[in-house]
Amino acid sequence: MSYNFFHFNRGDRMVLLLLSLLFLGGIFLFLFSSQGKADKLSSAQSSTTRTLLTQQECDTQPDPVIHKGTKNDTLETNDHYVGPPEPLTYKPKKRIPKGVILDLNTIDSTTLTQIPGIGPTFARRIVAYRERLGGYYTVLQLQEVYGMTQERYDEIKPYFSIASAPQPILWDTISYHAIPRHPYLNYLQRAALERILYRDGSIENWQQLKNLSEFTVEDSIRLSHYFSF
């Protein structure tokens, strides 16, 4: 009799196992739900406490002292508001006075902008053209700067002189495959120089260039300041 009471077949054991799992799950859910309610209650109490403390601090904080501004009697300031920022004051650009004469071959672009009639763009152009030339040999060459008008040239030319002349390149140091790129030498002239140097090995005098159709008397005058024998 006792054997039949405690003996369970496989199906009975599965039912008992399922009931046990359901029972344990119910206990776990009950404990978890109780803990969550306790945490929410504790959080609500902490939030209420912080709110009360903040209100008490605001009630006990003294009102800011308002005083008159020093620069404007109608401007009220306090420790948190100090008024608008100081306005920027215009500082006039430094200008070189009339009567001052500068060397066109040594002046830099910053100093050029201090001359009436020359802005940053023209200052860069004047310096860039000077570098391409190898130096100015006369103030009149400023007329060749890109964008230069007669009015602007007449305005700025009294400020310049040529105190340091360009250093010319010797013809016998030039080879036929390394003709310098110069503003006063166009493509056809460079090709003619290449042929002469390749054929003769050197250029002896200006007459040798004048005999070429690519060169004029004016060309020899311009080039004589940058090339020599």
TrEMBL record:
Region of interest (Disordered), ranges: 60-86
Any one GO BP annotation for this protein: protein secretion by the type II secretion system
Compositional bias per record (Basic and acidic residues), positions renumbered to this chain: 70-79
Protein's name according to its UniProt entry: Helix-hairpin-helix motif-containing protein
UniProt cross-references to SUPFAM superfamilies, sorted A to Z: RuvA domain 2-like
GO CC entries: type II protein secretion system complex
